[in-house]
Amino acid sequence: MFTAIFGSVEQGIIYAIMALGVYLTFRVLDFPDLTVDGSFVTGAATAATLIVLGYHPALATAAATVAGFLAGCMTGILHTKAKINPLLSGILMMIALYSINLRIMGATTETAIGRPNVPLSNVDSLFTIFFGWWGNLGIDTAINNVLISIGIENVPKTWGTFFIMIIVTFAIKIIFDRFLKTEVGLAIRATGDNDKMIRSFSANTDTLIILGLGISNALVALSGALIAQYTKFADVSMGIGMIVIGLASVIIGEAILGTKTIVRTTLAVIVGAIIYRIVIAIALRVEFLDTGDMKLITALIVVVALILPKFFEKRKERARKAKRRAERTLTSEQEAKQLA
């Protein structure tokens, strides 16, 4: 059980990067971007293909991020320049990326024909390179010995992925937080809140939307590239339902930690992504559920995450109203006594 939850936490930290991208479009820009399902695979496909072709994993990951940025920018161009509905522009780009991703992975074959998946079992990735250095530190042995001494028998093989992804994800979070506080970041936030107002200050909202979508999908593609290297394969169908997972992470995090500040909200998104993966792992250990039920479980989690905050808010509101009525009743009684 411990190793299953630990693996879910590792994946949750990686998926949190994707969730930050979803947060940027859906919450900051107020743009329903469905490109995510395609750009996630674009990141995975680009990184996997370049690694198989012999490029360094760091360069492959950077190229995957750029590919995601370009995909997001294209969605923005379809909406702002071609005047296509936001939802439809995302759907069109998602459909186009399916074929593009097949072509990208097909570059690993001699004929360059579309290929549905690329295995990474026999090549180096960012994680395997890092593990070569991490294994000599002896940190895994020290932590596992402590866990065994307190009665935990099934311990992880390595803690390297956990620590490196904590550092990477929070570094991205800090950069993301600071960006949203810059002049451009504030303009993007204002565009999502009130585009007419920001246009009155001579800001080019089209450019801001394109930039915001580009950054969002760059984060999504980066997450896809890291997931491909973590799981040692890239598959054309690995992005199905990714937008729902991202939204679930955002909604769960906001329900738990709130949204008072940008720093707190982005932290909530990361926490939400981790909690989501843990809930999925626990749910799949129930006897009558299997991996085919994952999408159903995801939908139920989102429904619960949407309903519970409203339920608790209504309870608080009723409690506040009851308190005010009690105060008014007490005041009325005191006034009546004084008049008597």
Automatic annotation (TrEMBL):
<protein>
    <submittedName>
        <fullName>ABC transporter permease</fullName>
    </submittedName>
</protein>
<dbReference type="GO" id="GO:0005886">
    <property type="term" value="C:plasma membrane"/>
</dbReference>
<dbReference type="InterPro" id="IPR001851">
    <property type="entry name" value="ABC_transp_permease"/>
</dbReference>
<keyword id="KW-0472">Membrane</keyword>
<dbReference type="GO" id="GO:0022857">
    <property type="term" value="F:transmembrane transporter activity"/>
</dbReference>
<keyword id="KW-1003">Cell membrane</keyword>
<dbReference type="Pfam" id="PF02653">
    <property type="entry name" value="BPD_transp_2"/>
</dbReference>
<keyword id="KW-0812">Transmembrane</keyword>
<keyword id="KW-1133">Transmembrane helix</keyword>
